[in-house]
């Protein structure tokens, strides 16, 4: 996979951080955080789709490369 733009990596990091913040939440706090996580994930998916279309790369390949770049660079934030 070619270079992954920093913007995609930053969006994926934001989504992962939002997911990690779900730990320990319940009730309304949990539901509010789920909405934030889904919004962040929707932004990631839109950016991945746009990048794939602009570069002619496969969407799945771009998504996998973004996730791998983020996950290899950091530990799972949900574990911390």
Any overview of this molecule?
- The chain has 80 residues and is mainly α.
- The protein has one domain (6-73).
- Helices cover 74% and strands 0% of the residues.
- It contains 3 helices and no strands.
- The chain has helices at 6-20, 27-55, 59-73.
- Helix 2 crosses helix 3 (59-73).
In short:
This protein has helices spanning 6-20, 27-55, 59-73. The chain has 80 residues and is an all-alpha fold. It has one domain (6-73).
Could you name the ranges where pLDDT drops below 50 across 5 or more consecutive residues? none
Query: How many H/I helical runs?
Result: 3
Indicate the mean pLDDT: 90
**CA radius of gyration:** 14 Å
Series of secondary-structure elements, N-terminal to C-terminal: HHH
The largest sheet, given as strand count, sense and whether it forms a barrel, is: none
Proportion in helices: over 70%
What is the count of distinct domains?
1
DSSP strand content = under 5%
Overall body shape: elongated
Strands, count: 0
CA distance, first residue to last residue: 30 Å
Alpha-beta content class: mainly alpha
């Amino acid at each position: 996979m070619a270079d992954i733009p920093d913007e995609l990596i930053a969006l994926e990091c934001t989504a992962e951080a939002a997911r990690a913040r779900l730990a320990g939440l319940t009730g309304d706090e949990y539901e509010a955080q789920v909405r934030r996580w889904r919004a962040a994930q929707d932004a990631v998916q839109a950016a991945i789709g746009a990048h794939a279309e602009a570069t002619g790369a496969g969407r799945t390949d771009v998504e996998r490369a973004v996730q791998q770049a983020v996950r290899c660079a950091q530990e799972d934030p949900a574990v911390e």
